[in-house]
Specification:
Layout: E1 25-26, H1 41-54, E2 70-74, H2 76-88, H3 116-119, H4 122-125, E3 130-131, E4 135-136, H5 174-193, H6 199-222, H7 225-229, E5 232-233, E6 236-237, E7 253-254, H8 255-258, E8 272-276, E9 279-282, H9 324-329, E10 333-335, H10 359-369, H11 375-381, E11 393-395, E12 404-406, H12 424-433, E13 436-441, E14 447-452, H13 458-471, H14 477-480, H15 494-501
Parallel strand pairs: 1-7
Antiparallel strand pairs: 2-10, 3-4, 5-6, 8-9, 11-12, 13-14
Helix pairs in contact: 1-10, 2-5, 5-6, 5-15
């Protein structure tokens, strides 16, 4: 098993700049100057807080039915993106409160799509995750959803019953914890169907299915097709097409990716989700709005919170005729990639985050403290014509003029310092609004939805980092067998992965 746990050299974290050329964290655009949004630290914080407030929507209760903010991407992909993030990066040393040099950080999660967030360091080193030397332990039975064999994660016996899994963050909400559980069951079914294969060979099979979904399903759903096509030769991804993500010895985690580009998923989170016929919950408790319960995790799963998987991904066909009964059972879709975050993310509970409580503000301040260049600087460095300020829209990508305004629109009352100087994270989200593709949804009566996708800056960063991590991993699918595909065929998707784990 991989799962390197590095040690920070003594005194390195106290240095303003690392003596290392490249750490587990690093920069793709090292030569660009950090963006500034004020003369003093207080000025920068206040300016970014104003932009964060403009990017945070008003309170919106969880609801069933079609929603103008929905994309054409099933809701489970939001949490699959979160699962991937937990697989490739874990940074326990960074802080919003100090100026961190990315080169001085140690990524305690290997920067590879190797599922060490599931497998940990293997049954020999972490036997408490396993049932013997080939299978994963599963938790208690849960009900209410579409899967009669649904199980919680395995947990310790003491309250609040923490999950016994490779990465504790995969228990931080009720959706990602059940997705983690499917990975355990996928492995167990694969092991049962291949009784003569060694544990390492089962791991390889699971890993290849996962990486195939990332390359051929996940990336195309979020990144504009022409961006991905530019990274291919004769239909296959080509490592020689990578222009911006390059490493000296081993792949590293770029801050432009971790702190900006890959945070596109925050804009796709819905205010809440219907888990099954009987449970509709906000992502966090909102007592002031009469919503005392939320999807927050790190506790035993409510025994009636099992997911109806067809509400999250296309494991079956869901009609939608507008009637209340059908509407409540429809598939839920992720919100569009845009410069608006659902309101529960504007007031994170104290159990989730300290001040500032706004996720948008936290992202912006973190990017500034990590010394990220502006979006326009990065675009020019990539040979891309930067977006004009009038095309950097702040708000919801619904197509209604009042829902999104130019960053310099007087109605937003934002400081002029953002003129031609947009924070990279905001820029990448705004770029997606200008790069929409029509997505057909055959599992919901062949509906077509205009869906924002990551463009030539954000999409290129995300795609190059994913591809680079795989090309840099000698055990990945791209390194060992780039022509590999699942037995189910080349059109294999996350829905197929879920169905197999469910025993279908």
């Amino acid at each position: 098993m991989s799962g390197f746990h590095g040690q920070i050299p003594r005194g390195l974290m106290s240095t303003p700049r690392s003596p290392l050329f490249q750490g587990r964290f690093g920069r793709m655009f090292r030569w660009l100057d950090p963006a500034s949004f004020g003369r003093t630290e207080a000025d920068n914080a206040a300016t970014l807080a104003a932009l964060g407030a403009a990017m945070s929507a008003d309170f919106d209760a969880p609801k069933d039915g079609a929603d103008e903010e929905e994309s054409g991407i099933p809701a489970l992909y939001t949490y699959f993106a979160q699962f991937i993030d937990h697989d490739i990066t874990f940074d326990p040393t960074s802080s919003l409160q100090k100026q961190n040099d990315p080169d001085a950080l140690v990524d305690f999660r290997t920067p590879a799509l190797d599922l060490d967030n599931v497998y940990g360091s293997g049954p020999s080193d972490q036997p408490y995750l396993y049932d013997g030397d080939r299978l994963f332990l599963l938790g208690e039975a849960i009900g209410g959803g579409s899967d009669p064999a649904a199980r919680d994660l395995p947990r310790n016996g003491a309250a609040p019953q923490r999950a016994l899994i490779g990465d504790p963050r995969n228990d931080e909400n009720a959706i990602v914890s059940q997705l983690q559980g499917l990975f355990l069951r996928f492995h167990n079914r694969m092991a049962a169907e291949h009784p003569t294969l060694a544990f390492t060979d089962i791991h390889k099979l699971v890993r290849f299915h996962y990486q195939y979904v990332v390359l051929h399903d996940f990336l195309p759903r979020f990144v504009k097709s022409e961006v991905l096509d530019a990274l291919k030769d004769d239909g296959l991804y080509d490592k020689h097409r990578l222009r911006y993500y390059r490493w000296k010895n081993d792949p590293f985690m770029p801050v432009e990716f971790a702190v900006a580009a890959y945070r596109f998923g925050h804009s796709m989170v819905r205010p809440g989700y219907r888990l099954n016929d009987n449970v509709l919950l906000p992502i966090f408790p909102v007592p002031a709005q009469g919503l005392p319960e939320g999807l927050t995790g790190f506790r035993a799963l409510n025994p009636q919170w099992a997911l109806d998987w067809g509400r999250f991904v296309g494991v079956d066909t869901r009609a939608y005729d507008g009637s209340p009964a059908v509407q409540a059972a429809r598939m839920q879709f992720a919100y569009r990639i845009d410069t608006s975050l659902a309101n529960p993310l504007a007031a994170l509970p104290s159990s989730v985050a300290a001040t500032p409580a706004s996720l948008a503000e936290r992202n912006l301040i973190r990017g500034w403290r990590m010394g990220l260049p502006s979006g326009q600087q990065v675009a020019r460095a990539m040979g891309v014509t930067p977006l004009d300020d009038r095309d950097i829209l702040i708000g919801k990508a619904t197509g209604h003029a009042d829902d999104a305004r130019s960053i310099m629109d007087p109605a937003l009352n934002l400081p002029k310092v953002f003129a031609r100087n947009c924070p990279l994270w905001t820029y990448i989200l705004a770029e997606a609004i200008q790069n929409q593709e029509t997505v057909k949804i055959p599992v919901v009566e062949n509906i077509s939805v205009a869906t924002p996708k990551l463009g030539p800056v954000g999409g290129r960063i995300v795609a190059e980092v994913f591809l680079g991590m795989m090309f840099g991993d000698s055990n990945s699918m791209l390194s060992l067998d780039p022509h590999w595909q699942p037995a189910a065929g080349p059109n294999y998707t996350l829905a197929d992965f879920v169905k197999y784990a469910l025993g279908q």
